[in-house]
Each structure stands twice: as structure tokens, then as C-alpha cells.
Amino acid sequence: MARTAVVAVAVAVGGSVLAGIGAAQPVAPGLVPGTPCTPAARACVDVAGRVAWLIDGERIVRGPVRVQTGDHEDPTPRGTYAVQWKAEQYTSREYLIQMPYSVFFAPGGIAFHEGRQDTPSAGCVKLVHDDAKAWFDYLQVGDEVQVR
């Protein structure tokens, strides 16, 4: 039996928010509705769409939220990872920039963290302040992160 999901959309345009409900969309088997990730993920990132979610089983806890990822020179690595460690206040030794609310999940120091949304990252997933704090508070060491 095929699963479907109703798609709700809210888009900010010139300071106004446009919202609507779309037609039912098919849900790929094994994926959390509205995301490209499975229920095993606690955090999900869609690199191409530049959005992310926090997930609890098949339920979206937060998101989709806008994120800034790496570019073609320093891409955000795709794959399935586990949260390695967290630091509420961290300064990158390589780039000498502050990375508040860091949640490290991939080799090479790749993390979710608070950061500017107008420039690409060096492979990290940058979030605005409120979202970075939510990711930091929600994710625990060992939690699965899926980057698609």
C-alpha cells in the first residue's frame, strides 16, 4: 500500500509569508514523510534543497529550516553519520571563526553550528541562532545524522 503525505508550504517573499496546502504527494517507502531520510535519523539534511529537520521516529520535531552548506570547493559530505561530540562555544582552529552550538558529526570537523546564511560553509551545516540552539539541545552523542 503506497503512503502519501499532504504537503504544507510556507514561503517568505519580500517580507510576506505565503502559505498553502498542496495535493497529497507519494511518500517513498521507508522515508519520514516530507524528508529524504529514514526514521533512524535524529537529524536530516537535504544539501541540494538547503534545508534540515530534527526527527523522532517518523515524526518531524523541527523543520524544515533553511541551512547554509558547503560549496563545490568545500562540499558538505553526504552519508550517514553519528554525533561525535558537542561544544556550546567553539572556535575553529583551522578558520579562526566562532562556531556557537557546534554538534560535530562527520570526519574533518564537520558540524551543525550557528553561522551566517549569506556565505557557503567549509563543509559544515550552518543554522540561524534559534535553530542552532535547537539542534544543540536536541541532538546527543551517538544520534544518527543523515545528509542527502
What would you note in describing this structure?
The chain is mostly beta strands. The chain has a single domain, classed as L,D-transpeptidase catalytic domain-like, CATH 2.40.440. The chain has one helix and eleven strands; from the N terminus they run ββββββββββαβ. It has one helix at 129-138; strands at 3-13, 16-27, 43-46, 51-56, 59-66, 79-82, 85-87, 102-106, 110-114, 125-127, 144-147. The strands form three sheets. A five-stranded mixed sheet has the order 5-4-3-11-6, covered by helices on one side. A four-stranded mixed sheet has the order 7-8-9-10, with helices on one face. A hairpin with a 2-residue loop joins strand 1 and strand 2 (16-27). The longest helix has 10 residues, at 129-138. The model is unreliable at 1-24 (pLDDT under 50). One of its GO terms (biological process) is cell wall organization. Pfam families: YkuD. Pathway: Cell wall biogenesis; peptidoglycan biosynthesis.
